[in-house]
Every structure is written in C-alpha cells, then in structure tokens.
Amino acid sequence: MEPRLMIFLLLVILLCHSDASVFKFTNAVCKSMNATLLTINECRLKAINRTRTVYNFFSTLHYPVHDVTVEFQIFKRANGYKPWLYKTKINACQFLKRPYSPIVIIIFKLMKDNSNFNHTCPYVGPMFIKDLCIQSDNLPLVFPTGEYLVASKWYSVKKLTLAVDLYFSFVEDLINQ
Question: Transmembrane residues, as ranges (predicted)?
C-alpha cells in the first residue's frame, strides 16, 4: 500500500475515534409559576469532572395533570442569546402516545433513560430527571462550537406552569485533539 494512503487512513481512523467534541452543561434555571400545582425540589447541575456535568431535576405534581403543552426553543449565544434554528410546540400527552416532532424525539431519546417521563397522561406525584449526562457521541445533530440555551415552557390547561432553561456549551476542536 502506498505510504500516503496509509497515513491518510490512519488520520481518518484517529479523527473518527477521538473525543474531539465536548458537550457540557453550564447552567440550569427552573421556575415554577404555579406553586400550588408544582413544587420544584431540586434543579441543579453536579460537576463530575472538568468536562462532565450531570443535570438533576426533582419536582412534585400535587394534582393530576391531563393537558400538558411544551414549547421548546434553542438559542445560540452571540452578543446575547439569539433564537437559533429550532422552535416547536407540542402536546406532551399526544407526543407520548405517538411521537411526531423530530426535534422533540431527539431530546426525549437523550433523557428517557434518566427520567420517569415514560407514560402518558395523567401525571401526578414525583417527576424527575436524574444524572442526565449527554455525551457528544450520542448527539445525532452537529452543533457548531458555541454556547447554547434550550428554553422550555410547560403549560397545563393553557397556563404557564414551569419554565426550564438549560445552558450548555459545545466545543468541537479537531485541530488540538
């Protein structure tokens, strides 16, 4: 085999199997708009090491909820957070019966193993996401290097009940890795 071709194949193999991209949660902000319906017990990030952070969310629904609408929007930081590519609104009860939104399917697949959001409505009692850690290998989408915000607003009977803002950074550094 030609030496140039051999070096090229070796570089391709090394680049494909390197951890050249890093996904890291940087902040989590949760706010309950209706404390009689929903109590947030915990909404925090826990640092595992310098490049790995896990997200924990524990809440309690005090009454059964039958009609849940969720609005997701992704923002990218550029002189403040600006809307970036995706904004969608779904009916969570219908989505859990039959998933229909491609972006929300991706988000749901990333967190379903770490949460108890695995059944259809009605929801009541404890709701949690425990030790959610997203590896860049598990992301089906390619993000440019930067800082992002996934803002979600949860509505119950068309009234804003919960706002969750997850901030993260994504760094793709192929040259220095």
Answer: none
